[in-house]
């Protein structure tokens, strides 16, 4: 089992290094940029390869270019003999269908995507704990690789790939967006910018720690959990720019609490449900 990478960016370098650290045989990298290819080879202690060398020597080929380059690169690869080769891309949104006609030419095609935000190639240190999605035909054909690589993975239907990637964006990219909103509002309150990360990070860290330890639904805190109508009204009156985002997220939080009360008949539950119904009307803009 010999592995090669086409593309020498953060994902390719990190995953290549992870595989070498796990004991798998990574031959090396091909990239249009000689400098980035050499850097990737040095980082993973592998080789710089030409495209032809990589395809001839490797039976597992990972395309780790930007998404918009995968299709055109695949058209180049089809000029080579790919029979029996396992071809992967690592896009979160695209499916193995991007490798059109792979079956006709005797190649096996897959998408393998890590649920992790790659800020730099040092992220290889964390991949042992990351969940991967795998999609493609004849998964049994690559099961030995997945096991040897010690990957935690689940199989995803290609029809759900875009939806799955949207979920990942909510969990990763948009948590940064929420931090940006919090920062802007803190600045409006005259907080010194140098204090802002230290101010909001414990809140976000605590929420994430609760999610890990208690699960998503049992980690919610704040005025909606308390059924505190007046506090939420004060919030809405004070954040005109972000009011609609607050309302939308508030309704999601409200649904979490309402689901917990389903089937509960005691007076305390009825009282809380009345409070939540009142809050829902406010968030939806009902009179």
From TrEMBL:
<dbReference type="Pfam" id="PF10727">
    <property type="entry name" value="Rossmann-like"/>
</dbReference>
<dbReference type="InterPro" id="IPR019665">
    <property type="entry name" value="OxRdtase/DH_put_Rossmann_dom"/>
</dbReference>
<dbReference type="Pfam" id="PF10728">
    <property type="entry name" value="DUF2520"/>
</dbReference>
<feature type="domain" description="Putative oxidoreductase/dehydrogenase Rossmann-like">
    <location>
        <begin position="2"/>
        <end position="114"/>
    </location>
</feature>
<protein>
    <submittedName>
        <fullName>Predicted oxidoreductase, contains short-chain dehydrogenase (SDR) and DUF2520 domains</fullName>
    </submittedName>
</protein>
<dbReference type="InterPro" id="IPR036291">
    <property type="entry name" value="NAD(P)-bd_dom_sf"/>
</dbReference>
<dbReference type="InterPro" id="IPR037108">
    <property type="entry name" value="TM1727-like_C_sf"/>
</dbReference>
<dbReference type="InterPro" id="IPR008927">
    <property type="entry name" value="6-PGluconate_DH-like_C_sf"/>
</dbReference>
<dbReference type="InterPro" id="IPR018931">
    <property type="entry name" value="DUF2520"/>
</dbReference>
<feature type="domain" description="DUF2520">
    <location>
        <begin position="132"/>
        <end position="251"/>
    </location>
</feature>
């Amino acid at each position: 089992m010999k592995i090669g990478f086409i593309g020498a960016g953060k994902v390719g370098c990190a995953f290549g290094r992870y595989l070498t650290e796990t004991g798998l045989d990574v031959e090396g990298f091909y990239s249009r940029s000689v400098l980035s290819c050499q850097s990737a080879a040095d980082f993973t202690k592998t080789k710089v390869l030409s495209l032809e060398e990589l395809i001839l020597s490797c039976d597992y080929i990972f395309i780790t270019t930007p998404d918009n380059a995968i299709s055109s690169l695949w058209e180049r690869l089809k000029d080579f003999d790919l029979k029996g080769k396992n071809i992967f891309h690592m896009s979160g949104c695209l499916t193995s269908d991007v490798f059109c006609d792979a079956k006709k030419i005797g190649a096996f095609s897959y998408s393998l995507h890590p649920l992790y935000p790659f800020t730099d190639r040092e992220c290889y240190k964390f991949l042992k704990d990351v969940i991967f999605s795998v999609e493609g035909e004849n998964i049994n054909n690559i099961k030995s690789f997945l096991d040897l690589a010690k990957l935690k993975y689940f199989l995803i239907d290609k029809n759900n790939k875009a939806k799955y990637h949207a979920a990942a964006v909510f969990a990763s990219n948009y948590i940064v967006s929420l931090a940006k909103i919090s920062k802007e509002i803190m600045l409006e309150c005259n907080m010194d910018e140098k204090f802002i990360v230290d101010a909001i990070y414990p809140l976000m860290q605590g929420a994430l720690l609760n999610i890990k330890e208690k699960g998503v639904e049992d980690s919610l805190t704040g005025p909606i959990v308390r059924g505190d109508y007046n506090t939420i009204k004060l919030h809405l009156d004070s954040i005109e720019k972000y009011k609609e985002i607050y309302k939308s997220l508030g309704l999601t939080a409200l649904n979490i609490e309402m689901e917990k009360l389903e089937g509960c008949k005691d007076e305390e539950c009825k009282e809380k449900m009345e409070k939540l119904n009142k809050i829902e009307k406010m968030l939806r803009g009902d009179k």
